[in-house]
Structure formats: structure tokens, C-alpha cells
Amino acid sequence: MWAVTLGALLTLSLLIVFILQNQDLVRVQYLGLSGSLPLGVGLVIAALTGGLMVAVVGAVRIAQLRRAGSQGHPRTTVPAPRRRSLSLLLNHGQHHT
Fold first, then answer.
1. In the chain, is it the N or the C terminus that has fewer CB atoms within a 10 Å radius of its CB?
2. Could you report the per-residue pLDDT of 41-58, keeping only the tens digit for each?
3. Total structural domains in the chain?
């Protein structure tokens, strides 16, 4: 638990440093809207928006798969690869009599 908390604090600290080091104002235009904001803030907003879009698409796909699974569709399984012992692999091509 503490490792996760420390990792989150480290990530947040690095994000704050990134935003503070990228304070140049940039002009942003999107769908008729325009404005100025610090470069670091704009990049963080873009990254968060992209991550949110991926999460939404992933959640929709998981819901589709769960719905298909609950409607009685047979599950397709991939057979597990055959396991060979190490001695068979090392002696491959050698014939013992």
C-alpha cells in the first residue's frame, strides 16, 4: 500500500515540475473555441483527455463482451500449447537406441 502511495506522490511531483517548467503561453484553438494557456497545462489536459477516451472505449468494449457472454454464446478457447520436457528439446534430432 505504501509503495503505491509513494509511487503516486512521485508521479504527482514530476507532473507538477513539468507544469512549472512549461509556463510559456500558447494559443489553442479547438472546434471554434480559442484561448491561451500555459503549455504544460495544455499538454496535461490533452493527455488526460486522451486517457479518458481510451478508458471509455475500453469500458464499452468490455460491456459488449460481457453482454455477448451472458447471452449464451459459446466461449471460444485456444488450446494450450503442448509442453515438451527440457531433455526432449535438448536431445531433439538425436536418436537413442
1. C
2. 888 988 999 999 999 999
3. 1
